[in-house]
Amino acid sequence: MKRILMTVALVAAFFMSACTTPEGNKLSTEQQVQITCEGIISTVRILSGYRAAGQLSDQTIKTVSDLMPSTVKLCSGEVTDYETALQTLQETAYILLTVKKGVEA
After folding, report:
1. pTM for this model (two decimals)
2. Which residues form the signal peptide (predicted)?
3. What are phi and psi of 53, to 5 degrees?
4. CA-derived radius of gyration, the chain
5. Per-residue pLDDT tens digits for 35-52
6. Whole-number Å distance between alpha carbons of 71 and 36
7. Looking only at Cα atoms, what is the longest distance across the chain?
8. Is residue 90 classed exposed, middle or buried when 0-12, 13-18 and 19+ CB atoms within 10 A define those classes?
9. What are the distances in angstroms from CA 76 to CA 29, 34, 45, 70?
10. C-beta of residue 54 within 8 angstroms of C-beta of residue 26
């Protein structure tokens, strides 16, 4: 449980740090999209390991698989509206982190 809380705290800090740089300059929405994509990619890699180990249910695999087409599109640079893309990607990140937390519980 302690490990899960630490992971959630680190991820929350990561996403909060996406808003400003150490110098206090606000990151652009495009930069926030890039950072969120990197977090999603890392989480998907971890979930892939759990899948290979047989630790994901069929429903969880479907949930993650359903999120991937739009995520890949947005993280591949096919973005015209960064505000909307950021909102979509943050929702995806939340779902994936919730899935990861459930597996690790």
Report:
1. 0.73
2. 1-20
3. -85, 0
4. 14
5. 999 999 999 999 999 999
6. 10
7. 45
8. middle
9. 15, 10, 17, 10
10. no
